[in-house]
Amino acid sequence: MTRLKMGMVGGGIGSFIGDVHRKAASIDGMIDLVCGAFSSSEEKSIASAEALGIPKKRAYKSFEEMILEEAKLPQEERMDFVSIVTPNHMHFPPAKMALEHGFHVICDKPMTLTLDEATTLKQVVNSSNKVFALTHNYTGYPMIKQAKAMISKGDLGTIRKVNAQYLQGWLATAVEKTGQKQAAWRVDPKRSGIGGALGDIGTHAENLIEYVTGMQISELAADLSAFGDGRTLDDDGNILLRFENGAKGTLSFSQIATGEENNLGIRVYGTKGSVEWYQENPNELTVRWLDQPKQIYTPGGNGSYPESSEYVRIPAGHPEGYLEGFATIYRSFAKELSQIKKGESPSTVRDFPTVDDGVRGMKFIYAAVESSKNNASWTKI
Amino acid sequence: MTRLKMGMVGGGIGSFIGDVHRKAASIDGMIDLVCGAFSSSEEKSIASAEALGIPKKRAYKSFEEMILEEAKLPQEERMDFVSIVTPNHMHFPPAKMALEHGFHVICDKPMTLTLDEATTLKQVVNSSNKVFALTHNYTGYPMIKQAKAMISKGDLGTIRKVNAQYLQGWLATAVEKTGQKQAAWRVDPKRSGIGGALGDIGTHAENLIEYVTGMQISELAADLSAFGDGRTLDDDGNILLRFENGAKGTLSFSQIATGEENNLGIRVYGTKGSVEWYQENPNELTVRWLDQPKQIYTPGGNGSYPESSEYVRIPAGHPEGYLEGFATIYRSFAKELSQIKKGESPSTVRDFPTVDDGVRGMKFIYAAVESSKNNASWTKI
Amino acid sequence: MTRLKMGMVGGGIGSFIGDVHRKAASIDGMIDLVCGAFSSSEEKSIASAEALGIPKKRAYKSFEEMILEEAKLPQEERMDFVSIVTPNHMHFPPAKMALEHGFHVICDKPMTLTLDEATTLKQVVNSSNKVFALTHNYTGYPMIKQAKAMISKGDLGTIRKVNAQYLQGWLATAVEKTGQKQAAWRVDPKRSGIGGALGDIGTHAENLIEYVTGMQISELAADLSAFGDGRTLDDDGNILLRFENGAKGTLSFSQIATGEENNLGIRVYGTKGSVEWYQENPNELTVRWLDQPKQIYTPGGNGSYPESSEYVRIPAGHPEGYLEGFATIYRSFAKELSQIKKGESPSTVRDFPTVDDGVRGMKFIYAAVESSKNNASWTKI
Amino acid sequence: MTRLKMGMVGGGIGSFIGDVHRKAASIDGMIDLVCGAFSSSEEKSIASAEALGIPKKRAYKSFEEMILEEAKLPQEERMDFVSIVTPNHMHFPPAKMALEHGFHVICDKPMTLTLDEATTLKQVVNSSNKVFALTHNYTGYPMIKQAKAMISKGDLGTIRKVNAQYLQGWLATAVEKTGQKQAAWRVDPKRSGIGGALGDIGTHAENLIEYVTGMQISELAADLSAFGDGRTLDDDGNILLRFENGAKGTLSFSQIATGEENNLGIRVYGTKGSVEWYQENPNELTVRWLDQPKQIYTPGGNGSYPESSEYVRIPAGHPEGYLEGFATIYRSFAKELSQIKKGESPSTVRDFPTVDDGVRGMKFIYAAVESSKNNASWTKI
């Protein structure tokens, strides 16, 4: 195995999501971080490189410089792909440029600042012949793979009802006014786009729903709120969902749900059975049946499907967490890149979120905002 | 203490809710069942009386007969109040007649078949000088009392978000076509009214929300469904909620949520803290705070408020259940009747659901049905 | 059905366990409390009767008086059985006298103050032709019945390991010195016998283990402690268990386990499967299998055996609690008494703990105390 | 930061624990795997190196070769430390040789095959001036750090009772006869030593108990069993514990606990409070108090102590798992090595299990086996 070389945009020391991406990329031993434009401040970018054990010369002062300079390096030395971990408004520019300069891209979500950017990016990806992955990391959890497999095989029958939630409380007070950087950009439309919590966590829930069920939301009725004093972007929302196949549901998300940490959860009810899962205890999947006792599935545990077990790194009962789920996105992305590098044709089924998921997420944001402006009237995605 | 004497309408042997009412009335040793019109079949009514240890002469063939005959008995012998445990369409007639003949009434929910009946009944109650209680039994759980007290004292700050659910799966298949009586009347508009699951369990959730938060739902947007083949009444619904104070929320209920038993739950988020409770494990109240660790309150356990502890019958750690919560409604009702009997003035705060809750529940049903007909448009309650 | 008439020894107003017995006896509508010697203080006994709605003439000043006076009443009026709810030292005298005067007896646990009393009582019971029941109430929980049935049918294979615990924290401080009556008699050898927590809760766990598994503990090695300052009776214990069939296990109990409420629990491991149950959330039975996912059984829920479901009063998902489990002992006892009254021969399988369980419990106490004196050496029961 | 270079003994592709060590070493980006003697088969060692992206020349055919050859490399190139992930009988030889040739060592548990080896190894470590770490990985969980900190600060008062369990079911059937390698060496005294499950998982529990409480087990009474047909080593055990300070407790472990996955758990009761933790859901620490409601602490969540939070990699609510706990051992080990490399004096408190923990674990095994041979008589550790 030849290890892949990663360049990073954003993620200077102290950032939350940059560090998550680095750790996730490391776990499976397939990827080495070799360079980065870690910060818009050159000084900070260099300091970050130093702390990460990366030679100073590969600490770039901008993503443009990184892409241009790396492209000049011999193939065995230059980065294979770019990981983009900046705030939303800085996703599209480096993604587009990297793809156009021959680099694969893995990017944090939501994919872009605007829907226009998203559709443009899709065209760029399609014409680039490069791989683009979006880190909707929650789809990497084994129990989510198990739920998806059970639904896809028809174990649960026809799906009729979906309830999803994504509840956080960290914006319950005005932390954005306290110098907290994570909060500051998330409540700022210039950096976040038209969705607040909607874009930050609502899209995760939307992606999870569609991933697990294999169904598309056809229309929605969204009641978004900005409870925080002076906030222009939503920090809470309640949404009615209708699916193409006639199923219905709800999605409730919040960043002002006091005391909640990262409570993403989903329940899916079919004619024969149902599944229930919560991210904070991700190694349990509750499955209910018409006439059998409730079951608890665990990663690699009794009854697990191969579609789930192949994503489990350690024996049943040894809990995997957020970083491992995230790492699964990186691993699947890396496997595809390795196949391409070896000249093999990659598998037709892409086992990670793609630019299509990214466009879908942006359409979801736009539909929800529009619906909410129209007093929660039904709006097609 | 003089024990109170109860007459029952409905609840023949084999009925679900009749037996629940009898057990709930028994637990605290304040009430004796003395007579009943247990069934529209005289034979069955007599057989039920016999099985219950009630003399044959007090097994009546109709509620009319029971009310008229009991009224003739000397006061120390005749029933003090009527318990109505029939399907919805048979709530109003006996309730009205009993009140008009000088008997107190305790009645199952939803209060009546129609909203008109409900408003009429309210007038009857008000002009009767008798006590009317409605068995929204879930408000009897100690941890619900605790949550209500914490919110009412302001512990959680201003309430901003409410998520409630009431999920059952017993109508996931067409059990109403298998001779199951419980199912048969619930899917029949003539006996249930215009709400199906909405009336049967949705009103419980609505009542719980308003009871716990002390806030009123001002408007709602409801998307009701009848998934079951040939059903005309809803068996599932998803509702957006808006409250008078600006709080928002969701209510999702279902009787086709495969595998769910009786999963009533509520989460309430305030500016300072939040509470979470599920009926299937009712002896835990999860409380989250802005800056303190999550707490688990238990009935009579450390930190419980008197407003909650006074409803606990046994020491902390000895779980109370559905029947005890139900019994609490009966006990509070009985206490008020005892005070009246003794000539004392009853406490001004009525500690059980009243005719006002009943009217509110019917308005909720009507608003939800209307909203759903108008494609989930916002409808005032 | 003719209702049965109960006389009570002990249980004056304010007592914990007397009230529990009364409520448990009431729930199923088969038993009426008609008389009592509620307290050794005549005044208190009369006040208790009054509060309970019992005529003053049937409030006796001693159990002796009650037994003698009731025996003189006509059969249709006099009590059918005596319920004994006094501290341990006052179990044997009224039990013996009642049986000898023709009354059935239901008695709290542990059965007697001493092992001698227990063996004597067994002889009395055997020669009396009367029914004696012991309220090891935890065996009344439906999920315990389910576990017992699964083991007895061989679902779990051969049992090899048992872990049980009964953890309370209410004696973690010296509450017996604060005037707390419940604590005072429990730490007093004259009223409790040679076991402290061992007798009070350890015997419950011992009974539960043998009831669920159908196996007898053959020998034990007990390390008992009296952590509380000045206590002479144990308030904590850890015991190794060996069973007749070669299985092994542990039993850990405590009343100084700070913060624990009433945490009785059991795990039983067989060659094919295992069960796990906790009293504080009694409506879940966790079942694990060699090669199937973990299951959660619920009372009356999918997959429940008839041996369990027949003890469920309300549909699955409507939690039953401590009082209902306790009531099941009373109900089974009452059913047997009714059969006897009608002249039917009672079922050969007695569905409640008997004098044999009581003797067994006393032998367990004596063996544990002896073992502990000998530095936890193996001691036969 | 200069990254550290790791050489591995054992852990050929397909091994369980070798892969765990590699992933754990990778997560924090401080360590690179540079060489290995991955298998006693040279061919397999080379294949493993290839799969891991390690140059063939640094795939050694034995640990002796690896140590000798690496020692010859220039300092900036050669490995800094050896990670030993072989079965128990192959811990001591490479550990001793590596230390004697100037390499630091991190080693899987139990530390050695025999107690003699353990005491010898301690001398080797002490005279080597090198760092030795033992991967009792469960002490790396943040909630274990939190529990330890709370106890050490006296929050729980004086500790009086400890209950620990480590329950697995994977040896419930004779998997060692099916060609399962993990099982084969674990039931073989030549490769495992005198303890079976006792050494494999019992020592983890012992280490966890002493780590969390800060107390030493003074004596124990162990009842070990070999339930599996033909097994000579224990596969199950129940142990009474006594601590130096007068506390008492139990430890029950098993590998024949059918259906259990990796159920390590601990409860510690003090005079003021208690803690409870289970490895399968490691991100919750339950804390009970004398007079406050039960609390649930989470990694980095409200109320977490710095002693715990510094080990948390991602915000509260983003679960960390087994690999992260394991990685914490590696990270602390790597930090100390980095300090040494930089010429700094390392912190006096070693934040990872050391050779002393290893000796202690071996003494525990020997004491338990001796006690069990003497019919569970009390034996000093």
Describe it.
The structure is a homotetramer of 381-residue chains. The first copy, chain A, folds into two domains: 4-130, NAD(P)-binding Rossmann-like Domain (Rossmann fold); 139-314 and 360-380, Dihydrodipicolinate Reductase, domain 2 (2-Layer Sandwich), CATH 3.30.360.10. The longest helix of chain A has 20 residues, at 322-341. In chain A, 36% of the residues lie in helices and 22% in strands. In chain A, strand 8 and strand 9 form a beta hairpin. The model of chain A has no long low-confidence stretch (mean pLDDT 96). The radius of gyration of chain A is 20 Å and the shape is globular. Chain A is an alpha/beta fold. Chain A starts with a strand and ends with a strand. The C-D interface holds C 156-157, 160-161, 163, 165, 167, 169, 172-173, 221, 223, 225, 227, 236, 238, 240-242, 248-250, 252, 254, 256-260, 267, 269-274, 287-290, 294, 375-378 and D 156-157, 160-161, 163, 165, 167, 169, 172-173, 221, 223, 225, 227, 236, 238, 240-242, 248-250, 252, 254, 256-260, 267, 269-274, 287-290, 294, 375-378. Strand 13 of chain A pairs antiparallel with strand 13 of chain C.
